Amino acid sequence: MGEVLGVLAAVLSSALGGTSIGATRYLVTSIDPLAIGSFRFGIGVLLLLPLALLRGDRWPARGDWAAAIGLGILFFALFPILFNASLIFTTAARGALALSTLPLLTLVIGAALGSEALTWRMSIGVVVATSGVAVALRTDLSSAPSGAWRGDLLMMAAALCMALYGIWSKPLIRRSGPIAFTTMSMAAGAVCLILLSCFRGSFAPVAGFGAPQWLAALYLGAFGAALTFYLWAFALERTTPTRVAISVTVNPITASLVGAWLLHEPLRWNLVAGIVAVFAGIWLATTSGQHVRAAGISASSRP
């Protein structure tokens, strides 16, 4: 049951990440991506910290501080910088597809490092889910600016950061707790982004913020950072990094559905087919161990 909860938490986390794209696109017309990241993760830390203290959660041990801070810089500072930089060169659709290589990267790296077994069922599930994203974004992939490959590579580098965070943070999260670990690692990334934003003068346009801009920033902090990445850590505590990573294929699907709902964009057949393929792939990858366990239990019960 714990593993099922982990998968569901990962899917919800990725779905929230998809809705956060709209808030980010709205704010990017007012302030630069560094300042957006500063607000997103700074507010996220301010919301998670009192929750961790009230719950009396177990914080990372002193011997894990360097790893927690390093992973925080990797995921909450370097990842958003690469993510935002990639969209300068490529389209949102191509970027979403490049980010959807995350489960494949996690699967291969995890197998190479021995953190989880490489199974055919999980591999097929990853390919099916990633193909579902490509089908859903089919009509948007054909229009690419010159040199879009640079943005695609930057997004794949961002996916690599996310894959390494998922694999390396899992044992640390188990030794402490998802809220406390996420708070410490997110704080490390937020401090880096805030310092860079101050150095570049990225906060200057904030003086002209109105209620809509502040609401968008608060949404990113509360739902796009605090809740999204708590759920991500909660999932990593309960299931394998690849099963968590494959949920990222829900992100562009959710973003497309939000666009259809808020912007009245048409729901084309390829989006519907992509949704079906994504969830079929997630089901294949996340149920890969159940038959083996059932067979083992059956065998052990024989006289």
From TrEMBL:
Family classification: Belongs to the EamA transporter family.
UniProt-annotated location(s): Membrane
GO cellular component: membrane
Protein's name according to its UniProt entry: EamA family transporter
Organism: Bradyrhizobium guangdongense
Keywords of the record: Membrane, Transmembrane, Transmembrane helix
Gene3D superfamilies: 1.10.3730.20
PANTHER family: EAMA DOMAIN-CONTAINING PROTEIN, INNER MEMBRANE TRANSPORTER
Phylogenetic placement of the source organism: Bacteria, Pseudomonadati, Pseudomonadota, Alphaproteobacteria, Hyphomicrobiales
Record-annotated EamA domain positions: 5-137, 150-286
Pfam families per record: EamA (PF00892)
